[in-house]
TrEMBL record:
Pfam families listed in its UniProt record: PDDEXK_1
Domain PD-(D/E)XK endonuclease-like: from-to ranges: 8-251
InterPro entries per the UniProt record, alphabetical: PDDEXK-like_dom_sf, PDDEXK_AddAB-type
Protein name, as recorded: Unannotated protein
Length: 274
């Protein structure tokens, strides 16, 4: 069986394919529905709260405005399927919200939002590399002290190990490429703010690192193209298998990938109707 070859890639999709081609097939090629995860939903909620905070003038990003931004985000997510389908009871939902608030407070301990010169929030950028479109969303684009571009990316999970950090920085340079391609200026720095631990990892893009992105992404896309043509998306077992929504249909666990096309939407439908 062959599949249509995608015409665009994002940093998350590049990571997804290199982590497990089979999971990539289910999610990105066949576009099968997945139940939301508490960690991803909480991250989305915190990102939304910070986005709302930065829609206010710099000198107002304190006190009641912080609380208002968070409560507005909570209210929005209360009716969002990404949260509703988690099926949390009242106690679990309150614990979820309380933990999200601790992450917002952790952010405030890491930097003073009144001093940030933001020029873009949840900024969607795309650039062409041959026939391939590269896409990405920048959490926050700002101006540094000398007017230079700085990209900030919020992370609500645990800070990474050294090996995983290097993979994360690959995505960082992806954003550098997009900024340079679309805005005509390479960022002076890209910051990953790990709110859970209070750590900030800063990368300084170079011409070589940005050039490497086109080389790596093109190589990944060619591998995706080959897999789509041959239908050979091989599973790659690892730590993420235990939380994979498609494990039931993964051949590494005795499943049949061809049944996923029917059974995954049915399972999601039952979840949505519960």
């Amino acid at each position: 069986m062959s599949f249509a070859v995608p015409t665009s890639l994002s940093p998350s999709r590049v990571d997804a394919f290199t982590s497990c081609p089979m999971a990539f097939r289910f999610a990105s090629i066949e576009k099968l529905p997945e139940p939301p995860s508490p960690h991803a939903t909480k991250g989305s909620l915190v990102h939304r709260a910070l986005e709302l905070l930065f829609t206010h003038p710099a000198d107002e990003r304190v006190g009641e405005v912080v609380e208002w931004s968070f409560r507005r985000a909570v209210d929005e997510y209360a009716v969002d399927p990404e949260f509703v389908l988690l099926g949390l009871d009242a106690a679990a939902a309150q614990a979820f919200v309380d933990d999200a608030w601790t992450l917002v407070q952790a952010y405030l301990r890491m930097e003073d939002p009144t001093r940030v010169r933001d020029i873009g929030l949840e900024l969607r950028l795309e650039a062409q590399v041959g026939d391939l479109t590269l896409r990405g969303i920048i959490d926050r684009l700002e101006l540094g002290p000398e007017g230079e571009l700085i990209v900030t990316d919020y992370k609500t999970g645990r800070s990474p190990s050294l090996a995983y950090e290097q993979r994360r920085l690959g995505g960082v340079h992806f954003y550098s490429f997009l900024c340079e391609s679309v805005l005509g200026q390479r960022p002076a720095a890209i910051r990953l703010m790990y709110l859970r631990s209070g750590e900030t990892i800063t990368a300084v893009p170079s011409e070589q690192s940005v050039r490497f992105i086109t080389t790596r992404t093109t190589a990944v896309w060619k591998a995706v193209e080959k897999a789509c043509t041959t239908g050979d998306f091989r599973p790659r077992q690892g730590p993420l298998c235990s939380s994979c929504a498609f494990q039931t249909w993964c051949p590494a666990f005795g499943g049949d990938p061809e049944r996923a096309r029917v059974e995954a939407p049915e399972a999601f439908g039952r979840l949505a109707a519960a």
